[in-house]
What does this fold into?
Amino acid sequence: MPLLFPTLFSGGAGAAPPEPAKIPVSFVDGVALSNMTANGVQTLTLATHQPGDMLVAVTGNRELNAPPALLDGYTEAVSGVSLGASASGWRGFRLQTKIATSASETISWTGAYGFLIALRGARNVGRVGRTLWAAAPASNWAAPQLYDLDTSGVGFLLSGLAGGEGVTSVTAPWQLLAPASTARRFAGFLAENALERGPHARFAASGTWNATFWSVEFLPFPPAEVVLPPGAWRLDASRTQAGYAAWRGGMTVVNSSGGTDYQGFVPTGRSFSTGKRYWEVECAGEYGANANYNGYMGVASAEQVAQWGSGNAIQFGSIGWRGNGDIWSSDSSATGSRKLLSRPTFGKGAVLMFAFDPATRGLWIGKDGVWANHPDTDAPTFASKAGSVWYPALQGREPNEGGTLRSLASRFSYPVPASCIPLG
It folds into this structure.
């Protein structure tokens, strides 16, 4: 709890002065296009801000497989293209920033959608996320969750979409940006942040469409580097392909732009060859497109990791647990095959439990506190016949799939089995 002003000086003249007040980044004003039916030369002017405010321009187009050009003097924060099945399904967008040098700003671009807003107190872009939908789900849509947000209470979150048939509501504490025209086809939502893991923007849409979603954190100072607790295992940044976005200091990987059937896997940077280890994987939450993941989570052998670059981690003794409940593996370079079926399924928000014994090459699996086979009392769920050095591995095979590695006992959701030791 913060100390009251009189308390700070109760120790006499030598007491430390109070810290300067932290002023949160705030929304000033904005202008937006109405819903446009075709691309054209568009212009917006904002004249209610002041020099020093951060200008945020979001520009978008229709039926083009590329974002609009970068505005002169602006710096890109995030851009993307929706997963259209044909030319009529594409929506390209670009979010870009600039520090205002005058009290009037005019932007021009070729496109169909866009808005220009001003944020007071913002000087830096913090965490950035982007996710893709191939089509609208039956319930509300969700913008990407950002990890490792600043916790001092000064941050500002902005989320939005390119695509969709219209937005009708947004869950608190998010608010639709004014004017109301931004709620059609190209929406913006905002919220002040004081949490480690920011709130999701969930919103109701009036129709179905392909869409690209983004979230951006704005700060008055540069974002802090994420420092992991001593002993925590990271995923191997050198083996994170371009289609993956990584957060939480290297513990999380999500398929943000790898597309459909993106088979690349991400192993940990460290390996183990002795000791029956326990770890957890928290599947990417809320915004995942699939109830059951298409990809694999599990353990990869050193031989498999040496072949890294594409493909699934289910060869050379590696064992992959698929979201539909199947167990896949191969003891050689041959393509992995399904060894077991009807094990627990998993998808967005699930916490997966793993135990692996290098001595027997046996893998035990569980989900949300319930083991399929208990490591203390049961035979492993599956045991391979090859490999001696092992790496936990994560995969995001479809858009928005992925997860966060937990290697320390202090981060686990469930007890470590008596026969196991924590991975980290």
Remarks:
- Confidence is low (pLDDT under 50) at residues 1-12.
